[in-house]
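Thread: quick sanity check before group meeting

JM: Hey all, I'm pulling together slides for Thursday and realized we never actually wrote out the predicted structure for the chain we discussed last week. Dropping the sequence here so it's in one place. If anyone has concerns about the input, flag it before I start.
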Amino acid sequence: MVELGIALVAGLFYGLAIGIIPAAGATTGLVALYGVIPYFLDYPMAGVVFLMAVVAASTTADSFTSILLGIPGSNSSAATIVDGFPLARKGQASYAISAAITTSTVNGLIWGILVFLFLPYYGQVLLSLGVPELWAFTVLSLLTVGFVSTSNRVRSLFAIAAGLIVGAIGVDPNTNAERFTLGWMYLEDGIQLMPVVAGLFAIPELISGFKLTPAGRVNAKENQQQVLQGMKDSWRYRWDSLRGGAIGAVVGLLPGLGGAISDWISYASTVAAHPTEKFGNGNIKGVIGPEGSNNAQKATSMITTVLFAIPGAPFAAVLLGLFMYLNFEMGSPDLLNNIEFFRSMALGFLVATVLVAIVSYLFIPTISRISQVPYQYYFPILIVLIVWSCLQYTGGWEDIVMLLIFSVLGIAMKHFQFSRPAFLIAFILSERVENMTIQITSLYSVADLLVRPVFLALIGIFIGLLFLNYKLKLKIDYS
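JM (edit): ok, ran it. Output follows.
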């Protein structure tokens, strides 16, 4: 029990620190932990608590820099800038931060309880599905992550195809022969997840942080009255808060989309709900709406991640790898019977969500000053942590080469607006798609598949999404 408490506190403060660093966020914070997670091998449940506390704390805390500096703490808090930063420049930073924290905390608890306390029961659905249904759900997940295109469908499809090909590097499951390794022994076991995630997401976002400069130093009047008013207005405009939470929860269930999508959709829905009001100049509803989605999206992302080993968002892909390092195999029937694992997830996420809110309320002036530390001071520290984490595979120069290759790829994909989440999810699911396709074609006939209602329903949804995407031509940049 002592180990769990220490892990909870450590995750809380590490997540808080990551949250107040501009352009970092949960994904970068988790990436930097690959070098630390081996210390939890003797206490795996403490590791689960630690990781979930990091997710909860960093997601709540990333509102600080968005409001104070006009720089997103992560992609999932970018929309908060639109009305949060103008409030800070008017001397109402504590008011905006308090409203943001209250909204994130309430929705995090609501959706966290619905997810984590009932996750073992949701898992019973997994036991009722066969290979055809799991194959259809996996393919549907690939379509979902490519459904919202960066600039056009071709780029999303190209990112998915590239991810599947890169994920196939290693050994051919049919012949057990090397495939796409170019004779490099290092690639015989495939490309490891760590350099892929770090290169695609952490490095490009850290580099882009140099381009993000605050419009001006905030000189807010931090006081208790503003904090209390922020809490009151979060309740006063609770329907905007709950709407944002519901949107975040739905987006979290759709693999690969991430918090940026739910954040902007929540903001847009808030603006649409108040057509006579002006936004963008410090409307507190423009803070409450998008902040409702952040923690809710993180919570529901865990459903597909844990039950199907399909990451609900980029941060969940890193979390999946960290859990596997602790010998927890996501998507396995054995995990569904591990009640202690689910309790540890609930403890880490729910308790950290409450504690980080309390710490934030009490120390808003102090945290506000920390968040304004110049970017160049903590950039080297994060780079060292990420490189160290990537070296945990072999410890040799090959690990660094892989990080450099995917960093260049990540920067290029970000610049040319190719979907990085689509590439990542396809990379992770590549082996599964191939193996299940082999099983379906060898064990099932067309007649067998036509009498499986769940399979047919998933295929119907697949076709429907293709048609809807073609008709609406949805295009939202979440690269």
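AS: nice. The beta strands are 170-171, 178-179. Residues 52 and 128 are 28 Å apart (CA to CA).
JM: adding both to the slides.
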